Amino acid sequence: MTTYNPLLDLSDLPRYADINPVHVDEAISQSIAQAREALKAAESMSKDAVSWSTLIEPLEAATEQLSRVWSVVSHCHHVIDTPEWREAYNAHLEDITAFWTTLGQSEALLNHYKTLADEPHFSALSPARQQIITSALRDFKLSGALLNDAEKAEFLELSTQLSSLQAKFSENLLDATNAFAHYVTLDELSGLPAEAIDAMQAAAQADNHDGYKITLQFPSYFPIMQYADNRALRELVYQAYVTRASDANTTQPEFDNTQNMQKILAIRQRMARLLGFAHHADVSLATKMADSVTQVSDFLNHLAAQARPSALIDFEELKQFAKETVGIEDLQAWDTTYVSEKLRQARYAFSEQEVKDHFPLSKALDGLFHVIKSLFGVELVRTEAQVWHPDVQFFQLKKANTVIGGIYLDPFARTGKNQGAWMDEVRSRSLKTDGGIQTPVALMVCNFSPPLDGSESTLTHDDLITLFHESGHALHHVLTQVSDIAVAGIRGVEWDAVELPSQFMENFCWDYDILTRMSAHVETGESLPRSLFNKMLAAKNFQSGLQMLRQVEFSLYDILLHEQYRAETPDAIYSILADVRSRVSVMPTPSYNRFQHSFGHIFSGGYSAGYYSYKWAEVLSADVFSAFESAQANNAPLLSIELGQKYWQNILAVGGSRPAMESFKAFMGREPSVEALLRHSGLLSAQPHYKPLKEVSGMSLLLPF
């Protein structure tokens, strides 16, 4: 009698509460075996027998089962990082990578796709399926399908090594973060809000320790940097944070990511050369809107040029304020966040904590759901479902009382959970064998401060923006109307366009009417006062030049590192960043700062030679939002359901079924302009003179000169 394995139960939502690491081996082994059989059958098919229904559909069904099972394993590994989950994940990572690489290298499968790309097959396909075939032909080449046998074997070996190294990078960063604990007295926490102090006391008590526990989890780390009057404490915590998982942290050599980074970069470079590219950056850009490193660099350098004058003024003001008001003669990196908060309070007469007290999580969610309903006519209803942690909530999306999708929310930071915020898919929209629709489901993971002593968690305004950002990704996935899995939702969307919906949603966090709906002071229940909102709005672009340069610095480092790195010059992981900082940054950085050793986006995430995508997509999202601003200026509501439906149909609904530029033009009726981004950032001159920069993968960026 076969034992029931909940990980293999794909009849509905994942049975997270029943799934544990002991189920992984059977589920992955069985799913890979079935996928291999489907691949073998597809490869052996005669040319005359090739059609969408005979080739794509059975192969897609088998590989989708593998994807969904592995998605649960990968997710649990990221949010429940126990030794058992880590072992289960790593035990099968090589097999998973090998299968997908082998599929991508199949010359027989490539030839079958070429058959579908020829007439009369191609013209009989829907536009979405034509896009799938076109993208697949490109991806076969990028997976090494055109290599000889020896090169394929090397490429496969490199792929499996790369996946293991990337996983190890992430694990080292998590372990280094979790390993730090510093206990202090109450006197040492002068300046911190009571909420942060209470959380640190609770953390110490959980360890059966007196005093107050500081960790490198963001809800603990950031209040120290922002509010702690104790300069020595700020320096200690800053140094611990920026040396995580690096050679500069001599107390934790076992977590040093230096060799992992160098090996990752060397492998990516070798794989690029095998494919006939000069470097990994060109491989990455082959699937994006931007065409070349030069275009990306020009784009970033133009943003830096716009931001630098403002950033220089910001930094000089900060140094002067530190000296004259705070009493710091030599402003250092561990002072900037603290002094910036003091300056912001002095200039705009409010604190971040004052804002935070107005935004309980439940009210924030009510406000978010109101925005979604107003724009799209879609309701989110909390529903019972199996979850991986008691904090997790599940919501069904309903349109006219019909369930069209679902979203999980895992809101709070905790030990064993990766830092940051992200969205991932649980399943994609597709046609079921009975002709019905499999509804798409996404998950949103955040790391907000958890509630204490039965009180509700409250969110900073930055937390609100994060919540709306991740909801934009989730909506992109669950509001798709494409039923071909390969291009449904976020799948198949160019990486430098995938942030458009997420950054679009952020803009609604700056509307007073929306903020009043999602606010209720924790003590008085009062909504956000207009006076406080006006102060927030006045401070919106506080140090925006510095913030812009920071993002440009990260993006340039990423793209240039993947263009210039060579195995024979491993120290380039340091020298390239130093060079970028010398040209872009206006704030000095300590020599021991090892930001790059925790740059998970490019070393363990999907953003290698693609971090620029955040700024690239922000151009698109700000421009799209300008249509809503224009409507509001003409007395239409900002939450216009007419514009919301147009945005849904032209951008969200189509997923990756057509190029992102086509979707943008379908909504805006023109090519993108950077004007809205610069205006939102407070970096647009009063009377700009525009001229076309040049075509950037079809994007005519209009920049003020």
Automatic annotation (TrEMBL):
SUPFAM superfamilies: Metalloproteases ('zincins'), catalytic domain. GO terms for cellular component: cytosol. Its cofactor is Zn(2+). Pfam families: Peptidase_M3, TOP_N. Coiled coil: none annotated. InterPro entries: M3A_DCP (IPR034005), MetalloPept_cat_dom_sf (IPR024079), Neurolysin/TOP_dom2 (IPR024077), OpdA_N (IPR045666), Pept_M3A_M3B (IPR045090), Pept_M3A_M3B_dom (IPR001567). Its EC number is 3.4.24.70. Residues 30-152 form the Oligopeptidase A N-terminal domain. GO terms for biological process: peptide metabolic process; proteolysis. Residues 224-682 form the Peptidase M3A/M3B catalytic domain. Gene3D superfamilies: Collagenase (Catalytic Domain) (3.40.390.10), Neurolysin, domain 3 (1.10.1370.10). Keywords: Hydrolase, Metal-binding, Metalloprotease, Protease, Zinc. Binds 1 zinc ion. GO terms for molecular function: metal ion binding; metalloendopeptidase activity. It catalyses: Hydrolysis of oligopeptides, with broad specificity. Gly or Ala commonly occur as P1 or P1' residues, but more distant residues are also important, as is shown by the fact that Z-Gly-Pro-Gly-|-Gly-Pro-Ala is cleaved, but not Z-(Gly)(5). Belongs to the peptidase M3 family. This is oligopeptidase A. It comes from Formosimonas limnophila. The lineage of its organism: Bacteria, Pseudomonadati, Pseudomonadota, Betaproteobacteria, Burkholderiales.
